[in-house]
From TrEMBL:
GO terms for cellular component: cytoplasm. It comes from Apteryx mantelli. Its main location: cytoplasm. This is Alpha-catulin. SUPFAM superfamilies: alpha-catenin/vinculin-like. GO terms for molecular function: actin filament binding; cadherin binding. The keyword Cytoplasm applies. Keywords: Cytoplasm. It comes from the Eukaryota. Belongs to the vinculin/alpha-catenin family. The keyword Cytoplasm applies. GO terms for biological process: cell adhesion; Rho protein signal transduction.
Length: 761
């Protein structure tokens, strides 16, 4: 369970929640509901035990304790109502509610200190005398509240399973229908059930914390979106031509796909590992290179944490995977030769690294450690070049194929020959479609290796499966049309399957852009800030400058500084995730600055979007400008505060403006010569690091003040809203006013309400 409220110093939230290690929170709604409570409790536990306590301090402590107790009491009322509605969970829910109520009352008693002038001399036990008791009560409270929320979440899971079961039962009826009238009636019911399932799974997808599960859910729901329309036309075709074998093959394939997708959704929702987890069993090349480089770079800190055999095996696995590229008939000769050369070089660099490494283990001299650093850098540089070459091979192939197939000539030919009833031509174009399918499937496999993130890997796997399945379905639909060339419904059916193919090609273009963005340092997060100059008059001055990169020696010198910057960006990103309002100006500025700082870190490694020192300096200027805007946003935020923390916030904010000014001046200073340029690079990254370090202090402070102002006297005010939104999802899912993201609902509802046209065809 990973909860971390915005607090600094004292008892951490992880220690407060230590008793709850067995409770895993899988959704954002449960986590966000707990955040205000954790924040209030952490405030209580981390109060400073001063000899003299003002009345204001005593009253504040009592207010927090009372607020916690009142909010828990309201929360327990909701939990008990849920228990009464769901008898199978009643016992567990009731126990958790009793524990929460008891813990809330204990905290209220321990914080009842406002009326005590001399609490130490009174028989009444308070927070000042029994801090351990407060910690125990806090753990019990968080444990019980979390149990209530997780149990309530199980009800949502049950709703999804129940909805899936309804869909499956109706699908079985649809498979057996023998008349149009019966089909219209049952499909209308099926449509409504699919709309409800779409709402429930859409909400769940958005609520999942795990990005891999989100990607798998999105893939399954995409299958259901396309298959719903396919099921309609394929079933109509079978009813119109009941003796046609290819029509039955076509329909059976759609039903099979839908059942697999429905099962996949349930696996994700129930956290079953029967399927899905094996999808990534074969590690992609990018993942393998990332792990390998981390191990190699780890030798700087520890020469003994792994064996040379282990490292050699890791490289062997990576190079085995590159055979997917070198053995592919679609890889160009030039790319194949470069990949083979780099694979050979990687083996040589590893031999050199192992040799120096073994010597350094026996004799840790300064010269040997410097040799080791050079060997590490050369090894990593070689792997970066291999990664770059593989990326180029995969993306150039994808771009060429997608461009070549944009005219959809094979699909058009199948439609024409189907209407003509030309079975020989259908067979000819079937072979061409099969070749196209293999090309696109191979493209997906290669893109998966260079996708850069696990969610994108999953998307590549889904895309390959879609091409493999949709290809034969187009063929069976085309054969049916060729056998019944005058059939309007057979023609419509082929159109639907061809549209699915065209839609997947369009999706591949978007996926390719995402993969390229990730490779170039645009990390594929919620917001990506790109401040590099674009072609045109505004960057004409850059063209006159000689591009300068850092050499291996310079990268070695600046590696530690770059790593520090990387760690700071990770911390800042984690802090911005804690803000409920992701549209907040402070969050937007910070996310943009973090993205720019990350690009600078990548530059120190010879990777990412920044290719030259001049681009780095330009990025530093923009970073400083955004920092000044952020300072203004902090000031505007402080104007809204009436809190003891306001002076500290203003004090820290005042440091930000001169830091950004210094960075801006440094980035603008003209320098000549290699040594002076490197000094300027080092200074820019140091000053960027200093700004990011300050943000690491400002963000938790701001977050804490914001939550404190919002919380008021109701630290659990979000709980009723959570319950209302989540528990009533099943009953309200079909309401048209709900705008949750869902698959093809409008088009599906249109088909459901316009079924009368069936009889006329």
């Amino acid at each position: 369970m990973a909860m971390s409220p915005c607090s600094s110093g004292g008892v951490s939230s992880s220690s407060v929640l230590g008793a709850d290690a067995g409770l895993e929170i899988r959704t954002r709604s449960v986590e966000q509901t707990l955040v205000p409570l954790v924040s209030q409790i952490t405030t209580l536990i981390n109060h400073k035990d001063k000899p003299k306590r003002s009345d204001k301090t005593l009253q504040a402590i009592q207010r927090v304790g009372q607020a916690v107790n009142l909010a828990v009491a309201r929360f327990v009322t909701i939990g008990e109502a849920i228990a009464n509605e769901n008898h199978e969970l009643k016992e567990e829910m009731s126990v958790a509610c009793i524990e929460a109520k008891r813990a809330g009352e204990t905290i209220a008693e321990l914080t009842d200190v406002a009326s005590l002038d001399h609490p130490e001399s009174d028989s009444h036990i308070t927070i000042f005398m029994d801090k351990t008791g407060v910690v125990k009560a806090a753990r019990l409270l968080l444990s019980s509240v979390t149990k209530v929320l997780v149990l309530a979440d199980r009800i949502v899971i049950k709703q999804i399973i129940t909805s899936r079961n309804k869909v499956l039962a109706t699908m079985e009826q649809l498979e057996k229908v023998s008349s149009f009238q019966e089909f219209v009636q049952i499909f209308s019911q099926f449509g409504n059930e699919m709309v409800e399932f779409a709402h429930l799974t859409g909400d769940r997808q958005n609520d999942l914390k795990d990005e891999k599960k989100k990607a798998r859910m999105a893939a399954s729901r995409a299958v259901l979106e396309k298959c719903t329309m396919m099921l309609l036309t394929a079933s109509k075709t079978c009813l119109r031509h009941p003796d046609c074998e290819s029509a039955h093959i076509n329909k059976d394939g759609v039903f099979h796909q839908m059942r697999l997708a429905l099962e996949q959704v349930i696996d994700i929702v129930t956290d079953s590992r029967s399927n899905g987890e094996n999808e990534l069993a074969s590690i992609s090349i990018y993942s393998g290179i990332k792990v390998f480089k981390n191990k190699v770079e780890g030798l700087r800190e520890n020469l003994y944490f792994l064996s040379k055999e282990n490292l050699s095996t890791m490289l062997e696995v990576i190079l085995e995977h590159t055979e997917d590229f070198t053995d592919s008939a679609y890889t160009s000769h030039e790319h194949r030769e470069h990949i083979l050369e780099l694979s050979k070089q990687a083996k040589m660099e590893l031999e050199q690294l192992v040799s120096v490494w073994m010597q350094a283990q026996n004799q840790k001299t300064k010269d040997l450690m410097e040799d080791l650093e050079v060997a590490i850098l050369k090894m990593c540089q070689c792997m970066n070049e291999l990664k770059r070459e593989l990326h180029s091979a995969a993306t150039s192939l994808a771009a060429d194929l997608l461009k070549y197939h944009t005219d959809h000539m094979v699909l058009k030919a199948l439609k024409i020959t189907g209407v003509e009833g030309n079975l020989e031509a259908i067979a000819e174009y079937t072979c061409k479609l099969s070749e196209q399918k293999e090309q696109l499937a191979e493209m997906c496999r290669l893109l998966r290796h260079v996708s850069g993130t696990e969610p994108l890997e999953i998307t590549c796997i889904h895309a390959e499966d879609t091409f493999q399945v949709t290809g034969p379905q187009i063929v069976s639909a085309a054969e049916t049309l060729a056998l019944h060339p005058s059939s309007k419904i057979a023609k419509e059916n082929l159109e639907v399957f061809c549209e699915a193919w065209e839609s997947q090609l369009s999706d591949m273009s978007m996926l390719l852009r995402e993969i390229i963005d990730v490779f170039e340092g645009r990390r594929g997060e919620k917001r990506v800030y790109l401040s590099l100059p674009r072609p045109g008059k505004h960057n004409a001055y850059l063209k006159a400058l000689k591009p300068v990169r850092l050499d291996t020696e310079e990268q070695a010198k600046i590696a530690k500084l770059g790593l520090e910057l990387h760690l700071l960006t990770s911390y800042v990103d984690s802090e911005t995730e804690k803000w409920e309002d992701q549209e907040n100006k402070i969050v937007q500025y910070v996310q943009g600055m973090s993205s720019m700082a990350y690009s600078m870190y990548l530059f120190t490694r010879g990777e990412g979007l920044l290719k030259t020192t001049q681009e780095l300096f330009h990025q530093a200027e923009i970073f400083a400008t955004e920092g000044k805007k952020l300072a203004s946003a902090f000031h505007a935020f402080s104007d809204q505060l009436h809190d003891d923390g306001k002076p500290l916030l203003l004090l820290e904010t005042e440091k930000l403006i001169p830091m950004c000014q210094q960075l801006q001046i440094t980035a603008k200073v003209s320098v000549q010569g290699k040594s002076a340029t490197f000094t300027k690079v080092d200074a820019c990254i140091q000053k960027t690091r200093n700004v990011m370090t300050l943000l690491c202090q400002l963000l938790p402070l701001c977050c804490r003040l914001l939550r404190k102002n919002k919380a008021g006297n109701s630290c659990l005010k979000s709980a009723p809203l959570w319950r209302e939104n989540r528990v009533q999802a099943g009953t309200n899912a079909h309401c048209p006013e709900r705008t949750a993201e869902m698959f093809g609902i409008k088009s599906l509802e249109n088909h459901v309400t316009n079924m009368t046209f069936l009889e006329s065809k």
